Amino acid sequence: MKKIAILVLIFLNYNLLAQNVVQIKHASYTSLFCIEKYYPLMVEWWETTAKADCATPTARKDKFKPDPLLPRETNLKKDYVNSGTDRGHMCPAAINKCKGEKEMEECFYFSNMAPQYHSLNAGDWEALERFTRKTAIQQDSIHIWAGNIGESKKIGKVSVPLQCWKVIHILNTKEYKAYLFNNDSSKADGINNNEVTVHHIEQLTGFKFL
């Protein structure tokens, strides 16, 4: 894990700062938010058995709001209105339901959001979220990175990414999986049809995971 942290830090120092990217740390996730595209290039978090399964989960409230650590740049509620895209979570609300009100509130900050077409957000993206939660319950600790690439158009000042990606590392089995989705209105075709190599995501993003 230290190797990953060092590599990401190197990437931050030599590439991200040139792209006006701000690192924002919260209780349940860390966001690398691009203030040119107004979406996160990457969000990193952990999913565990304790976070995925509990007797008294916190209710989802859907209170989307600016991130208080970057309030001006993440004041994006109006940009999403009538945009034809969903406010797509990177770190999902469902994995924060067992942590409490603070973590649930934080996951609805716009520093954790990117414009996603509904067919992706409610299709394969949601299916992958269910898969990681199920795996977290079975295998406990999973390290997850998710992010966005490119721009197909703008909604207000916010770029709509061309693609959305996710990398997961299952600590118990030492297995890595990576997924890449086109962010468009096409029908879901299953997460297995969108599985790619980790190296492919590394080439696209510049981040290092292995």
Structure, described:
The protein is 26% helix and 29% strand. It is globular. It has 7 helices and 11 strands. The longest helix has 16 residues, at 124-139. It is of the alpha+beta class and 210 residues long.
The first-level CATH class is given as Alpha Beta
Q: Could you tell me the strand content as a percent range?
A: 25-35%
What Rg, in angstroms, do the CA atoms define? 16 Å
Write out the strand line-up for the largest beta sheet, numbering strands in chain order: 1-2-3-6-9-10-11
Question: How many β-strand stretches?
Answer: 11
Query: Which consecutive residue ranges, at least 5 long each, have pLDDT under 50?
Result: 1-18
Shape: globular
**First and last CA, distance:** 9 Å
Structural class: alpha+beta
Number of helices: 7
The helix content is: 25-40%
**SSE ordering:** HEEEHHEHEHHEEEEEEH
CATH superfamily: Extracellular Endonuclease, subunit A
Total tally of structural domains: 1
CATH topology (level 3) name: Extracellular Endonuclease, Chain A
Give me a quick take on this structure:
The protein has seven helices and eleven strands.
Label this structure with key terms.
alpha+beta; Extracellular Endonuclease, Chain A; two-stranded antiparallel ribbon
Helix-strand layout with pairing:
Layout: H1 2-14, E1 21-25, E2 29-34, E3 39-47, H2 49-52, H3 77-80, E4 86-89, H4 101-106, E5 113-116, H5 118-121, H6 124-139, E6 142-149, E7 153-155, E8 158-160, E9 163-170, E10 175-182, E11 195-196, H7 198-205
Antiparallel strand pairs: 1-2, 2-3, 3-6, 4-5, 6-9, 7-8, 9-10, 10-11
